[in-house]
Structure formats: structure tokens, C-alpha cells
């Protein structure tokens, strides 16, 4: 299935509220920034939930993790601004130490119940040979939070006592999937994706080289489609 934004030929985005749950700053941009930019351009609400602040994302062992985290949070906020994202929520879990346990599921479930997304976008934690343990942990914990945890009132009843209500998302989108079944046209938003990634200055030094690699991949994803550049997802429908 192909999804294109309002204003293009083809199918429009069906839902209004989207939440992107990722392990590290720049994960959302690498995996889905073209789609995020297309969503916000179409007037959709997008929230990014940042599980860690990337506090181990440096090759210099002398840099304190707190300084790395502060830098990367600032970069993520700027990147999100460039994409038109409504909000970035930082869960500030420790980089490199994520596991898909009940504690992480509670935090993600809380975000779902607060922001009430129609669609949740995250890592494919089930892809064979997905090497990064944080990516796997966030993908699996997010899946378990979407279904059934966030929808059932006996899961984390303290949320309901705090005034949060249960929530049923309509769809779950996995980026980086082994067998994607949805391609989003990012031809018009590709440069916005690159610009958003360029905000992560502590991680990316060769923006021109990155642009070339991303374009090659986006062309490959869009092969056989009626547009030049794409991002792909595996979509699981939760309800109608």
C-alpha cells in the first residue's frame, strides 16, 4: 500500500494523531523523518517520545554522559522544530541499558494514554538480525504497550487514578522492517529529512555524503512506485 500526503495524488493520510517512539536522538529522523515532515505538512499532529537521550553517543570517554545528553536533547529539539513536530517527550532512560520490561512498558503506556495517538511509529524490534539492543527493546516494549497494555484499565491502574484514560491506537507502524507493506512518498520532504538530520551535529559531520546515501536508499524503497523517493513501514492494524 502506498500512502501520500494531502495535496498529492493518491491516498491521503487517514489519521490525525501520530506518536513516534524511538531509542535515541536521530533514530526518528533516520527511520521516518520524510514521513514525519509529510505528516506535519498535511496538518497532522506528531509527537516524538525519546526513550534515551543518547548519553553514550560519543567516542570520547572523557566527556560526561550528562553533557552528551544535554547536547543531544538540544539537537533533537532543533531537529523536531525543523520537522514541524508538536512536542518531544524525553523519558531519559540510560542509553545502552534498555530492556523491554514492565518498567519501560509503563513509561511508554503513560505516553500513549497522555497523547492518545491514532498511529504509533517505532523500531521493528522483531526484524531478524536487528543488532542494536536498545532498538529491539523499544520496538518490543512499544508494541506491548500499544496492545494490549494501553487499552486495558487493569494495566497500570495508577494512570486512571491520575486522570489518564485507556487508549486504543488504530495502527502500529514499524520502520526498518524486513517485509514492509506501506511506502510513503517523501519526494517533497526529502530535503527536510536531511535538514533535520543535520541538526544532530554531534553525530553527523558529512551532511553531503549522508544526503547521497539517504537518496540512494529512498530511490531503492520507491522502486515500482509512481514517485521517486520513499520510506517504508510494516503496518499492523489494531482496530477500525
Can you tell me about this structure?
By secondary structure, the protein is of the alpha/beta class. It has a single domain, classed as LmbE-like (Rossmann fold, 3-Layer(aba) Sandwich). The protein is built from seven helices and eight strands; from the N terminus they run E-E-H-E-H-E-H-E-H-H-E-E-H-H-E. The protein has helices at residues 27-41, 65-83, 102-115, 133-146, 157-161, 190-198, 207-221; strands spanning 2-3, 17-22, 45-52, 87-93, 119-123, 171-175, 182-185, 230-237. Helix 1 (27-41) crosses helix 6 (190-198), helix 3 (102-115) crosses helix 4 (133-146) and helix 6 (190-198) runs antiparallel to helix 7. Mean pLDDT is 94; it is low at 6-11.
List key phrases describing it.
240 residues, alpha/beta, Rossmann fold, 8 strands, 19% strand
- Give the percentage of residues in beta strands: 15-25%
CATH architecture: 3-Layer(aba) Sandwich
Distance between the termini: 17 Å
Pattern of helices and strands: EEHEHEHEHHEEHHE
CATH topology: Rossmann fold
